[in-house]
Structure formats: structure tokens, C-alpha cells
Design brief:
The chain is of the alpha/beta class. It has 2 domains: 6-207 and 344-403, Rossmann fold (3-Layer(aba) Sandwich); 210-337 and 428-466, Rossmann fold. It has 12 helices and 19 strands. Strands 3-7-4-8-9-10 form a 6-stranded mixed beta sheet, sandwiched between helices. Strands 12-11-13-14 form a 4-stranded parallel beta sheet, sandwiched between helices. Strands 15-18-19 form a 3-stranded antiparallel beta sheet, with helices on one face. Helix 4 links the parallel strand 9 (162-168) and strand 10 (202-206). Helix 1 (70-89) packs parallel to helix 11 (371-389), helix 5 (209-223) packs across helix 6 (236-249) and helix 11 crosses helix 12 (394-403).
Length: 480
């Protein structure tokens, strides 16, 4: 299928992985309404800082505190609030230039999920508030929408890194184009032929979907799946996922019996379930957002349809899924990272399980294992870049990005570094709920598959066994 990426009003490439309408997390009531003014949040100061030391390290953030993405933002907020609390409890981040720790503060703006408002906010954060680093707005589409602005300002000597936490970097139109960076041993360049590391100040922390799909195909082959039906949400997230899945299945004995696209606001999966039941595939592969992913589970249970393998990308990764389905989540696979149980899930404040327990202790409910964990990892990266630089000098901070290949940044989603382009070099991971009970709070989340390009001939030095925590369970248990 020949698919072209959508563009926004400025002609910038947009991939909408962020429009998570209906992402309801019943237990989370932390949506902050910030309509016009910035809110600067700093914990009480400790001892007087040495002469010349800054009084705070300023993190900037524009996000959809209100609007259709507000609940998704609220999930991320619980995680960056937790990290900030942990960092400031030890006095802040250590700056070797001053031999002292400096607390972290935030400058927040509300963009309501609008790219234009976000651009205004980003420009203000960089040129007026002079923040030290930015955690970008929710969604891949926002990363691409702010990409040109951030780099244009960097060219004017406003060299502020904009981290796209909750979104995937997609700078290519075909699977072959992506893999060519590795096959041909080259790096991403702009239209002028300049390598990304000479001009790119928009960086991603979530791994490409290519590696996620490779891990999924590995799992399908491992358990003996021979046929699949694909359900995909009608956004670029669904399109990109299908593109890589089809490419990677070409040299297997697994057949795609049918592909069904559905709208983001779907309210009934009966027709898709009825069609799939007639085809009787071994697996249902659903490229979902949270709300539609949870709706499909609800309808499958109602219609007593239980495929032998069910991959529900983002419908089972939130605390709300535990509230809705409890032990019925057992056996469902999903889009994942090293968080929480892989030995590679280790960051500034301990292991993924340490962070999971800290989250449950603070909030009293299960953490979101994808968007939340990636938000937490993103601010871990931001803090580590500054600590490694030892100062707030923007050039020094950026140099730590370039050094990361030889010294990856430990995070709860795995060690992060950049090499071929502004996307991180991280394995793709398949998670599975295993042994889930009505009292589970995330400890049932296992990693059953991981891949890093070997299926397409990419050679790396890494240990898959350090990522995978459990053999896949197949077939999945019946709806209990």
C-alpha cells in the first residue's frame, strides 16, 4: 500500500500517534487547568547555593492540560511530578561547575493539543523564559510540528533541546528507507546534506515502531502462529505499524487473512469481531490507542470471542485497564519497553520495579507502563544530560547527546543513546500480562519478546536475554 504522510498547515510532516481521545484514567484526577499564564513550580530551597550557582534548573513544558488530550497529559504529569519530587528530595541535580546540587523547577504552558498554541509556547519557553531544556507536548504530531521552529531558533543561537517523549520519530516513508540507515552505514541528513548532529535539537526518546514490529513477528513465529487478522486505528500510528508488520511478515509462513481499519471514535467492535470469528485466525493484531483498545476487549468479552493470541497495542497499558478488566487482562500482549521488570530498566532512582512501587505508594493505583514510563524516562534523560554536562551551558548539554553512543543514558525504558539520527537506539519490545489478578498493579507485566534489527540484517552487540523476562504464554487464557 502506498501511503503518504499527512502534513500540517506549514507543510511539516505529521504522524498522529498522540490523539488519544477518550483516554480515561478514572483514578487520575490531576488535570491542571493552565489557560494563559505560565506556572513556575519550584520546591523550597535548601542551603544557600555557592556564589554564581543558579538558584534552579528550569525545565520547560508545553502540554494539553485541557482539551481532548488532557487525560493523556495527566498520566504523564503523574510521572514527571514523581521524578521531580525524587530529584529535589536529594537537593536537585548536581552541577560540577559549582560543586553543588541545584533544585529543578518547571515552567508550564497549556497548548490544549493545538500545534499553533504549542509553537507559541515553545518560542516563549526558549526566547523569553530561557529554560534550560524542554519536555515537549504529548504526541508525535507535536514533535514534528515544533521541529522546524526549534531548529530555526537553535540556528539563531537559542540552542535549547526539545525532547519528544510521548511519540515516535518517523522521518521516512517506507520500511526500506528506514533500514537503509543501517544497511548503508549512514546518518540522517537534511536537504542541505548536513548530518543531524550539526543542527538537530529535536530529539526522541521512544524507539521506532520498526523494532516493535520485529519483536512481535519474532513472538508470532516462536509460538507457532500461522494466520493473523489486523485491526488498525485510522491514524498514522496504525498505518506505520501495518507498514512494518507487512514488510517483516513477507519472509515468514504467517499469512494476513484480513486488515480492517476503524475510526478513532469507534463505539462498537461487533462487526470486526464477527468477521474475524468467521476467518478463525490464530491471532488478532490490534494497533490501538487506549480507549478503542479497551472497547475491543469489552466487546470481545461480551461476544465470548477469545483468539489464541491477542496483541492490543495501547489498550491494556494504563491503570484504567486494570480498573476495568482486572484478571481478564491475563495473556494479552502489548507495545512495551524495558519497564518495569527487565534488568535493563534502571535509571536515576533505581529499577523499573522501584519506580513502579514508588508510583503506587504515591498515587495508590497502577502506573501506565507505556506513556507514563516514557514520560519518566524522558525527564531522566533531561536530568542526566545536564548532570553529565555539569553546567547549564547549552553547548555542553548538547555535547552529552553526541557522547551518549559510548555512554548510554540509563532509564526505566532501557539505556538511551542516539547514533543514526534523532531517534534513540533501543530494542523494540513486546509485553504480556501474565498471571494477572484483580489485585495486580503492574507487577504482572512481563517482556516476552525483544528485537533490534537482526531480522533484517542489522548487526549489533546486545543481549536479548537481558531484556526478555518470561516466555510468551500461548494460547492466551480464556476470559475469566
Amino acid at each position: 500500500m502506498n501511503v503518504r504522510r499527512e502534513k500540517n498547515k506549514k507543510g511539516e510532516k505529521v504522524r498522529d500517534r498522540g490523539v488519544a481521545a477518550g483516554y480515561v484514567v478514572a483514578a487520575i484526577v490531576v488535570i491542571v487547568v493552565i489557560i494563559a499564564a505560565a506556572v513556575v513550580v519550584t520546591l523550597p530551597r535548601g542551603p544557600t547555593a555557592p556564589t554564581g550557582a543558579p538558584t534552579s534548573i528550569k525545565f520547560g513544558h508545553t502540554g494539553p492540560y485541557t482539551g481532548v488530550l488532557a487525560t493523556a497529559e495527566s498520566i504523564c504529569k503523574t510521572f514527571y511530578d514523581l521524578w521531580t519530587e525524587q530529584a529535589n528530595a536529594q537537593g536537585g541535580l548536581y552541577l560540577s561547575e559549582y560543586d553543588t546540587r541545584v533544585p529543578v523547577s518547571w515552567v508550564f504552558y497549556n497548548d490544549m493539543g493545538d500545534t499553533g498554541k504549542a509553537s507559541t509556547n515553545v518560542e516563549k519557553l526558549i526566547t523569553e523564559d530561557r529554560v534550560d531544556i524542554i519536555y515537549g507536548s504529548y504526541g508525535t504530531f507535536q514533535g514534528f510540528a515544533q521541529h522546524e521552529l526549534v531548529n530555526n531558533l537553535a540556528a539563531q543561537d537559542y540552542k535549547t533541546i526539545y525532547m519528544v517523549g510521548n511519540g515516535t520519530c518517523v522521518l521516512w516513508d517506507t520500511a526500506e528507507e528506514f533500514y537503509s540507515y543501517y544497511w548503508e552505514n549512514k546518518v540522517y541528513k537534511d536537504s542541505q546534506g548536513r548530518p543531524w548532529y550539526t543542527w538537530e535539537y529535536t530529539l526522541w526518546t521512544e524507539m521506532p515502531r520498526a523494532f516493535h514490529m520485529e519483536a512481535l513477528v519474532d513472538v508470532l513465529e516462536e509460538v507457532g502462529v500461522q494466520s493473523v487478522v489486523v485491526w488498525k486505528i485510522g491514524t498514522l500510528y496504525g498505518i506505520e505499524s501495518q507498514r512494518f508488520l507487512e514488510y517483516l511478515l513477507e519472509n515468514t509462513n504467517i499469512s494476513i487473512l484480513d486488515v480492517k481499519e476503524y475510526p478513532m471514535d469507534i463505539t462498537d467492535f461487533t462487526a470486526l469481531i464477527t468477521s474475524a470469528r468467521a476467518l478463525n485466525p490464530d491471532a488478532i493484531i490490534q494497533f490501538s490507542y487506549p480507549s478503542d483498545g479497551m472497547k475491543s476487549i469489552e466487546d470481545m468479552i461480551s461476544l465470548n470471542y477469545n483468539p489464541k493470541l491477542f496483541y492490543n497495542a495501547l489498550g491494556v497499558t494504563s491503570g484504567d485497564a486494570y480498573t476495568k478488566f482486572g484478571k481478564k487482562l491475563d495473556g494479552i500482549m502489548y507495545h512495551s519497553t524495558a519497564f518495569p521488570k527487565s534488568p535493563m530498566s534502571r535509571g536515576m532512582f533505581g529499577t523499573g520495579m522501584d519506580v513502579l512501587h514508588a508510583y503506587v505508594e504515591k498515587y495508590g493505583f497502577a502506573p501506565d507502563v507505556i506513556d507514563g514510563a516514557i514520560a519518566y524516562a524522558t525527564v531522566e534523560v533531561m536530568g542526566t544530560l545536564i548532570e553529565r554536562a555539569g553546567s547549564l551551558d547549552k553547548d555542553a548539554i548538547y555535547q552529552e547527546v553526541l557522547k551518549s553512543k559510548d555512554n548510554p543514558i540509563p532509564t526505566v525504558i532501557g539505556p538511551v543513546y542516539w547514533e543514526r539520527g534523532p531517534w534513540p537506539e533501543l530494542p523494540g519490545v513486546v509485553g504480556q500480562h501474565i498471571g494477572t489478578t484483580d489485585n495486580s498493579l503492574g507487577e504482572d507485566c512481563e517482556i516476552v519478546g525483544a528485537a533490534f534489527g537482526e531480522r533484517v540484517g542489522i548487526t549489533r552487540t546486545w543481549n536479548k536475554s537481558q531484556w526478555v523476562t518470561h516466555a510468551p504464554v500461548y494460547p492466551k487464557p480464556a476470559w475469566s
